[in-house]
Each structure stands twice: as structure tokens, then as C-alpha cells.
Write a structure and sequence with these properties.
Strand content: under 5%
Helix content: over 70%
Radius of gyration: 17 Å
Number of domains: 1
Structural class: mainly alpha
Number of strands: 0
Number of helices: 4
Shape: elongated
Distance between the termini: 31 Å
């Protein structure tokens, strides 16, 4: 699956996780919408990546943002000591799991792109 499309799907997942967390929460805290806000950024990056001339930059920005998101969400889960296993925990867990999967696919995509580029250079040198 092309990374721009995967990024758009991942963005929708984050938007839905945040929206569901907010809708199901009794407190209606805006922090429940953090995955939604980040998902919107990924939506923009995925849309930008549909243009071939800026794809590399948009995908690297998305991967970097994903790493920061895992560190933030995972760090928040760890710092809470897993004391309160409630809705917030599960939305953070869903965010971390989806983001780790996205990072794995991103790294694989970067490796594959580098291999294709090197193969193209080698074929052009012959």
C-alpha cells in the first residue's frame, strides 16, 4: 500500500480514536481530542504526500511526528504508572499501537525506496 494512502488511513484512525474518546468521556476534556488534532496534521501530510515532488519531505515529517507521538503517549502511560485503567488509558494505548505500526511501515517504506533508488542508479551506470 502506498505510504500517502496509509498515512491518510492512519490519520482517520487517529481522528476517530480522539473523537470516540471525547464522546465517551464524562469529563469532556479537550485533552481527549489530542489524537484528533494530531490526526488532522497527518491528514494534511498525507494529502501533501500525494504530490510526488514533496512526497519524501511529507513522509519524513509524518514519520518524525509519529515518533514524537509514541514518545508522548507512551510516556504519559508510563508516567501514570498504569494506575488508572480507564477510557483515557485505552485511547492512549490505541494511539500508541496504531502509531508504532505506522512507524514500522514508514521505516520499511524508506528502506524500500532507498533500495529502488540505488537499483535505479546502478542500472543507469551500466
Amino acid at each position: 500500500m502506498p505510504m500517502p494512502l496509509l498515512t491518510l488511513i492512519y490519520a482517520v484512525v487517529l481522528i476517530l480514536v480522539g473523537a470516540a474518546g471525547y464522546a465517551l468521556s464524562d469529563s469532556k476534556s479537550l485533552t481527549a481530542l489530542i489524537p484528533t488534532f494530531v490526526g488532522i496534521v497527518f491528514l494534511v501530510l498525507g494529502a501533501m504526500a500525494l504530490k510526488a515532488d514533496i512526497r519524501k519531505h511529507a513522509m519524513h515529517a509524518a514519520a518524525g511526528l509519529a515518533v514524537l507521538l509514541v514518545l508522548a503517549s507512551g510516556g504519559r502511560m508510563i508516567s501514570s504508572g498504569f494506575e488508572e485503567i480507564g477510557l483515557a488509558f485505552f485511547t492512549q494505548l490505541a494511539t500508541v499501537v496504531a502509531t508504532i505500526a505506522y512507524i514500522v511501515f514508514s521505516v520499511k517504506s524508506f528502506i524500500d525506496a532507498r533500495k529502488r533508488r540505488k537499483a535505479g542508479e546502478a542500472a543507469g551506470a551500466k
